[in-house]
Amino acid sequence: MSFFDFVISSLILGIFGKNFKFFDLKNVKQIFFAFVFPAMMTGQILNEKLPPNHIATILFQAQDEMDNIPMVALGKAFTLYFDDLNGDESYYYYTIQHANADWTASELFKSEYLNGFDDVRIRNMSNSSATLQSYTHYSLTIPNRDFEITTSGNYLLSVFDGNQNLVFTTRFLVYEQQANVQLGVFRLRDLVGIDSQQRIEIGVQTNNLNSRQPEQEIKVWALQNFQWSSARKISKFDYVMNQTLQYEYSNDLIFEGGNEYLFFDTKDIRSTGGNVVRIRRNELYQSILYPDYVRNGNVYTYAPDINGNFVIQTTEGFNPNTDADYTEVTFNLQTAETNYDFYVIGRFNQYQPQSYHKLQYEPTTNTHQATIRLKQGVYNYKYVAIDTSSRLLENGVRGSHWETENDYYALVYFRPFGERYDRLIGVGFGNSNQIRN
To answer: How many domains is the chain partitioned into structurally?
Structure first.
């Protein structure tokens, strides 16, 4: 027993007495964290921690949904998937933490949002089949025999290894359908930015809510393409019409349109196509993509995309979870610009630039290149630039256009007077394909 375990056990036994002799150390630690940990975490921002190189392909699949969007209705099941490229059947454990609308840790005890216990091992795992890259595939479905989620809101799921080291975290949302939320996409009213930006309007019907002070009890957040870096709080509604709160004039409702995402398709790992110009095989298959170019300043060109997402598919097997192989994908950005660092991002890396997604300059060909190991499938991606002052230029490579097709989400939270947490009572969705003047 470690010193930390000894201290926890002593505290619990001192408080509750000898009745706890029937609990093993695991039970004692769960009880300790269920009661004490929320108080220690309150106010801390619950951010997503990116995984190490050997953890790949983190997917969130809600029941009856096809897309990889980390959002699920209260009471419905969802499954988290990921691969360990070490392929050694390591043990992994998980915890669930409730958060407020602004992603600060809430004051709730675990017993107030979980029926049962987390901090248990992920039991569902299987090894890859007939692939050059060996890996162990893990899946975690919630609810399960250990617990269920009983409260709506923001959540952080944390995965630990057998030594209790934090491996990665991922955010997800659990929502209720208590408020009807409308979301429309419009062109800007002002000439400044009219060619590069999009504006949304949100309406929240409060008929089903017993809210006497909606300006204090109701919070609305908006985000583009379910990318957390784009999320912003809409500070207040502008007027009320027919018991509907209208959000129309805030600058926080204006987003850069960006450009359509680039894509590649590696479902068939042995042949080119889908933006793959060449295939090689060494230890793994290598997929070299066609060169991409800087388009900032060019006119808009429509290209269908899945707004940064990715889908795992393979033609070499029946179960993509374990039959899909990994391939070394080489990205090429054709530019002689060396005053910026370029990165490739998408939902496959949670839209967060990191060192092994950085492109390296090749002076002989005036290209910036990066090679990333990715599972077979269809991927969207884009390039971002970081200048010498560490400023992220998300649309510095591809430009920004009002015509770009984007998904928008409105998240409506409700905290009545006297409550201690934010319920997620409604979600609105809109797409700029139906953009209006």
So the answer is: 4
